[in-house]
């Protein structure tokens, strides 16, 4: 999603009108004006009680700000239940009412039904443009505007590290949960700043990195550039070799190119979506030994087995969904310890995850989200 004022203009005057609330609502409720991550000024009448989501995984972000996020759902797409059954099951156990929330799409722009969304009677729509309606979805935005339903955009995909803080603060303001949002912001900023400031002071040698996305799903190598999960490499002190050849945010790079660059560090990304494919499986409910065994098999492939990263044992696995996850600073910590183990010897992403589970998350994360062949990692 491109979050710019130029793109905003394409939504037309009707989308702008969506920020104007009915006079009766303005008189009866606390009306605030917020600026979303797309730079749009939107009027919201609080308290917000019925939210429709453009992407099901946004529920996890809501859970960091509100103790019962399901109580706010008027409607949502079915992508979380379809793509991450373990996490959905844990939310279902904690919040049984989630089973009755109307489904308004499958987690893509094409499947999102504005008719079904409006039928839920929302007083706010939260969109991201990642896997649902975006700023380019003119008809959807116009229909929300005509119905008097304000729309705000958050972003954890296009610029995940840049936009996580404004997204959290936006949700805190909209829901009247500013203190809760600020606790998560502090968690993120204190850890990100430690890595940023230490790298700036030490100026270490920057290792070259191959990030093999959806590792094992296909032949080497599918790779991100500086978007989505690839956005974490530079801030963690690495150099992504894919950015020198990719002309798109995500795409294939050849094994010959990888062997020629001979990267210092290998990071495969994976998730439960790769279960049964031979790919790298990471995420909630996954055992570390299983992930490590799959990672070992992947890097034994001809060509990959010969690069410096594998020869020297600098082989790691990272949960792919950190590229669209509100606690993405955990991925930043893991990568920093892999790229600069001496400089960040005191950084412990496991301890950070434990703190988040105990103090921030409505539904704790238990599983394997990072792993290393040298035995470190969960």
Automatic annotation (TrEMBL):
Q: Which PANTHER family match?
A: MOLYBDATE-BINDING PROTEIN MOLA, VITAMIN B12-BINDING PROTEIN
Query: Which Gene3D superfamilies does the record associate with it?
Result: Nitrogenase molybdenum iron protein domain (3.40.50.1980)
Protein name, please? ABC transporter substrate-binding protein
> Which residue ranges does the record assign to the Fe/B12 periplasmic-binding domain?
49-347
UniProt-listed Pfam families? Peripla_BP_2
């Amino acid at each position: 999603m491109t979050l710019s004022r130029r793109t905003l203009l394409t939504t037309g005057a009707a989308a702008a009108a969506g920020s104007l609330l009915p006079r009766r609502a303005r008189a009866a409720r606390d009306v605030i004006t917020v600026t979303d991550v797309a730079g749009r000024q939107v009027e919201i009448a609080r308290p917000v009680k019925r939210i429709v989501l453009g992407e099901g995984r946004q529920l996890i972000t809501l859970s960091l700000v509100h103790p019962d996020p399901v109580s706010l759902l008027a409607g949502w797409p079915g992508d979380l239940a379809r793509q991450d059954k373990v996490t959905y099951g844990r939310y279902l156990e904690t919040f049984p009412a989630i089973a009755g929330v109307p489904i308004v799409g499958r987690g893509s722009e094409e499947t999102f039904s504005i008719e079904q969304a409006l039928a839920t009677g929302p007083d706010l729509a939260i969109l991201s443009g990642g896997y649902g309606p975006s700023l380019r979805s003119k008809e959807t935005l116009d229909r929300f505007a005509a119905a008097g339903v304000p729309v705000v955009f958050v972003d954890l995909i296009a610029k995940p590290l840049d936009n996580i803080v404004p997204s959290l603060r936006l949700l805190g303001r909209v829901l009247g949960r500013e203190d809760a949002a600020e606790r998560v912001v502090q968690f993120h900023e204190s850890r990100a700043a430690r890595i940023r400031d230490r790298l700036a002071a030490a100026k270490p040698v920057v290792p070259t990195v191959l990030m093999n996305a959806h590792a094992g799903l296909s032949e080497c190598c599918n790779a991100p550039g500086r978007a989505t999960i690839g956005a974490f490499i530079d801030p963690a002190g690495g150099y992504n070799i894919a950015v020198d050849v990719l002309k798109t945010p995500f795409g294939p790079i050849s094994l010959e190119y990888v062997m020629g660059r001979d990267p210092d560090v290998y990071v495969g990304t994976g998730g439960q979506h790769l279960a049964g494919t031979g790919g790298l499986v990471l995420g909630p409910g996954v055992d570390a030994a299983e992930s490590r065994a799959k990672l070992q098999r992947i890097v034994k492939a001809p060509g990959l087995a010969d690069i410096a990263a594998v020869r020297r044992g600098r082989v790691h696995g990272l949960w792919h969904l950190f590229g669209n996850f509100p606690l993405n600073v955990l991925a930043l910590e893991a990568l920093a310890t892999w790229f600069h183990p001496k400089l960040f010897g005191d950084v412990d992403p496991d301890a950070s995850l434990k703190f988040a589970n105990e103090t921030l998350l409505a539904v704790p994360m238990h599983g394997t989200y990072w792993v290393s062949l040298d035995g470190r990692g969960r």
